[in-house]
Amino acid sequence: MLVNLKKLDKNSNKYSIKLSDHNFINMLAENNITLNGDYDFLAEITLSLKGSRLIAQVKLKASAVLECVRCLNSYNYNIDEILNLIYVPLEPDKNDIVSGGRNIELKEEEMDLGYYDGNSVDLYNICIEAINLLIPLNPLCSNDCKGLCPSCGADLNKERCKCADRNIIIYN
Questions:
Q1: CA triplet 76, 82, 87: central angle to 5 degrees?
Q2: Do 96 and 104 contact (CB within 8 A), yes or no?
Q3: Where are the alpha helices (DSSP H) in 31-166?
Q4: Beta-strand pair 53-67/120-122
Q5: Residue 110: beta bridge partners?
Q6: What is the pTM of this model?
């Protein structure tokens, strides 16, 4: 869903995206994000321009399906957050090394900024960025998840491992 920045009002502009939007679901899948289809996903995005800076306040309500890093079971991770994201125009610099295919080092103040190119922004991309920021890097189904036995692979949350029956010592 593209928004033309030249047509933004001087005041804040609100937009909503629902899970039923097939284009958005396809973009999530391309980014390896699966949302719980039983949950009514909703993103409310408020855009405002302050000079050339685009301020995006993103209110997210969703339930993502994640895989626990300890036991490898899928579980629902509920998201109900508000993020404030700042975007500045991406102005190509003729001396910029990026155009030559090499990496450049970002300054510390540039780490918190996103960039937009041209006169429009894609609200789907803003939502996906917000979701990626809110999903944990090492998702756990619960803080006390016992994980899998490294020898026999038993899910220690559900069963006693076979190694314990054979008096094999497992160090965690």
A1: 115
A2: yes
A3: 123-134, 162-165
A4: unpaired
A5: none
A6: 0.65
